[in-house]
Specification:
Blueprint: H1 2-6, H2 26-36, E1 45-49, H3 56-60, E2 67-71, H4 82-88, E3 101-103, E4 108-111, H5 114-121, H6 127-135, E5 140-141, E6 159-164, H7 172-183, E7 186-190, H8 196-199, H9 201-214
Parallel strand pairs: 1-2, 2-6, 6-7
Antiparallel strand pairs: 3-4, 4-5
């Protein structure tokens, strides 16, 4: 995705969150993002993919952000931790979402079963992309799922929710409802599965450029 944005003169900052850390919370994840943005201008468009949706509002509560984009994201619910949220909002995740996940013995989950992982995360990616993407998957500690979302309300930042119609992880109907009722966000729908930055980078980049132009 980055080349398409760079051609338009936009700087792209990509960061990895400490998902394998057994002691890190989503607040810690947010601090990693804030640290990575030190020295950058305040007109940041912050994109949170999948579980990254739990982190980006915490960043916006700590530093200036121009716009938040929830991409196929697990949007938090005020007062609840993600673990409880999964139970209370059964349509948030698609049926069978955890069928390729297994515990690793350290309080983390890991992706197992390449074919099912492909179906859930990379269904419309070519085989080479899938191979490299799966090789880069990391364990996810369950620790941060225990803690309630620490904000009393979402930050007053312009927000867009991007829903991929073929997403096999996050429920489309849930995402549409949350975009309207919880976030008050502009809703953008596009074709593709859970990882459009790999399968449809040009289309996703155009969505993000549209957000940038709308400022």
């Amino acid at each position: 995705m980055s080349p398409y944005l760079l051609e338009q003169g936009h700087e792209v900052v990509v960061m990895e969150l400490p998902c394998a850390d057994l002691t890190a919370t989503f607040s810690d994840y947010a601090q990693v993002v804030c640290d990575a943005l030190i020295g950058h201008r305040d007109d940041v468009i912050l994109v949170g993919h999948s579980m990254g949706g739990q982190t980006i509002p915490l960043v916006a509560a700590r530093r200036p952000v121009q716009h938040l984009v929830y991409l196929c994201a697990l949007v938090p619910r005020v007062g609840y931790g993600l673990g409880e949220q999964v139970v209370r909002e059964p349509t948030m995740l698609s049926e069978g979402w955890d069928s390729a996940l297994s515990p690793d013995g350290e309080g983390r989950t890991v992706w197992t079963g390449k074919e099912r992982t492909k179906e859930l995360l990379y269904a419309d990616c070519d085989d080479s992309t899938v191979f490299n993407a799966i090789a880069g998957l990391r364990p996810q500690a369950n620790y941060p799922l225990r803690f309630p979302f620490p904000l009393e309300e979402f930050p007053p930042v312009p927000t867009t929710s991007v829903v991929c119609r073929d997403d096999q992880m996050v429920g489309n109907d849930w995402s549409r409802a949350v975009a309207k009722d919880r976030l008050g966000a502009a809703l953008v729908e596009m074709p593709g599965s859970h990882s459009p930055f790999l399968s449809r980078p040009a289309e996703l980049a155009e969505v993000l450029l549209s957000v940038a132009r709308s400022r």
